[in-house]
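Page 47, continued from p. 46.
Same chain as before, 265 aa.
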Amino acid sequence: MTAAAQTEQRVLLREDADGIATLTLNRPAARNALSTGLMMEFQAALDAIAEDRTVKVVVVAGAGPAFCAGHDLKEMRANPGHGIYEALFRQCSRLMLTITRLPQPVIARVHGIATAAGCQLVATCDLAVAAESARFATPGVNIGLFCSTPMVALTRAVGRKQAMEMLLTGDMVDAATARAHGLVNRVVPEDRLDAEVTALARQIASKSPLTLKIGKEAFHRQIDLDLEQAYDYASRVMTENMMARDAEEGIDAFLAKRPPAWEGR
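Result:
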C-alpha cells in the first residue's frame, strides 16, 4: 500500500512542528463526522499529547470540504439501542472534557461547515479561527434530535439568547455572526486561514508552557464559581504561580529588557 493510501485510510492525522501538534479529522467523504472509530483515535491522540512536553499548542482541523458535520448518523442508525447510544454520547462527552482539561491550549481551524457535534467541538476548543465561508449550526431540532450535548459547550461559549436561537431553529450561522456571538475569535479569507492559525499558535507557543497550563486550568475552574469564590481561588493560583521558576524568569527578563528563557517549572 502506498503512503498516500495509508494516509487516506487513517481517520485522524497528526503532524508536529515547532511545538504545535495539528490533529486533522480525516473522513472527508463523510464531512469528518465523528464516528466511534474517529473519536477513539482522537481520544488516544489527546491522551498522548497531554503527556508530551514537546507540544505547547494543539490545532484541530478537518480534511476535505468541511470541518466536522457532527456525529455519524448512518453509523448511529445502523447500530440502534439504548446502551449503544448512551456509550456513544459518553464517549463524545469524555472527548470534549479531555480537550477542556488538556494542559495545552487548543485552537479550532474551521472551514466549511461545523454542525451539531462539530459545532460543539468548535465551542469546546479554547480558541477558534474560521474562514469567511465557514458556517455553524446545531440542526438536530430539524431531524427530531435536539442538540443536547452540543448545547453544553455552546451555552458556555455564546450568550443564552443566541445559543437558544441556534438550538431552536437549527439555522446556519455565518462566520461573521459566529464571531459576533463569541463562538470564534477570528474570521479570515480562506486563503489566509492556515497562515492566521499558524501565527496564532506560534504566538501562544512562545509563552511558558507551565504558565499556559496553569492559566487554562484556572480559567475553566473559576468560570462557574461565584465572584467571591472565583477571586479566592484565583488569588491562590496566582500566589502559587508567582513561586514558579518561569514567573521569576519572566519578571526578571521583563525588567532587564531581554527575552525570557522558559524552563517549564
